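Weekly sync notes, structure subgroup
Attendees: PM, AL, DS (notes)

Item 1: joint prediction request from the bench team. They want all two components modeled as one assembly rather than separately. Inputs as received:
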Amino acid sequence: MEENRRYLTKLDSEIGDGDHGTNMHRGFQAALERLDGADPGSPADALKAVSMALISKVGGAAGPLYGTAFLRASTALQGKDEISAEDAAEALEAALGGIKQRGKAEVGDKTIVDALAPAAEAAKGAAGEPDASVAGVFRAAAEAAEEGVESTVPLTARRGRASYLGARAAGHQDPGATSTYYLLDAAARSLEGSS
Amino acid sequence: MVGLVLVSHSPQIAEGTAELVQQMAGEVALTAVGGDAGGSFGTDPERIQAAIEDLDTDEVLVFMDLGSAVLSAETVLEMLSSEQREKVRLVDAPFVEGAFAAGVVASAGSDADECVEAAMEARTESKLHAE
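Output from the run, pasted for the record:
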């Protein structure tokens, strides 16, 4: 979020209110501070801490949306100390369910869902492979999300500020889908580095 | 008793609407929550939650202006205890007109159902009454 703050804000200036990069950066800074300050006892606790930081600090619609996604992922991993590839795919599926419910969006609405839905699908596929790993699940999710981001370019927005622009939003890449790709890619890179 | 929480992206809109309702409706428990945590345009789930929890009324109606105000309010609803959630309703009505109508009805001692109904009527009530 730090590296891509300006780019996200540039995308958001074209069809949104031009604060997505700043908001996401502030939210994830707060998430890092929460994680540094308290020692989360489990993956579910860590995801919940991130969720609360995003809900209270992001400011725009992305706060409640990503906050809900992390909260649902946390609930999906409740009681688990170690995460399997299958668990990771289920957490992504739960996150997607939360975003769709909160944002009332489906694939094709030019939102986060356009990146996260194919990502969750790809994650499920990768988790079913014989040599499945959590890193592999996130890599597959990130790759599918990247394609999902590109699919938003020609779309007309049906949610958020951009929906008021009608056809004028077509031709612009969706900032929310883009930040979803960055999150999944960061998770994949971090897991690949640590394994 | 019914209390109102007014959630707007703008502190001025939230506070101005609260003032207007209080001025015209009289005695009504009401809290304005405008802007994000940093005082800029946006919404702040933490303050929305605090406003709902701090209102000492049997029922709470939440009015929201645009986009993230609705998402934030819905997220807060999910975070409340089930006991608190039961007394809260998000109202699908125009912000100023809806809050105003609900405030007037609430100050007359009506229950939440009647306040919501009044607010919903504000959605279709014509202003110019032109045929």
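Discussion: Helices of chain A lie at 5-15, 20-37, 43-57, 62-76, 85-103, 113-127, 134-151, 175-194.
Action: AL to compare against the crosslinking data before next sync.
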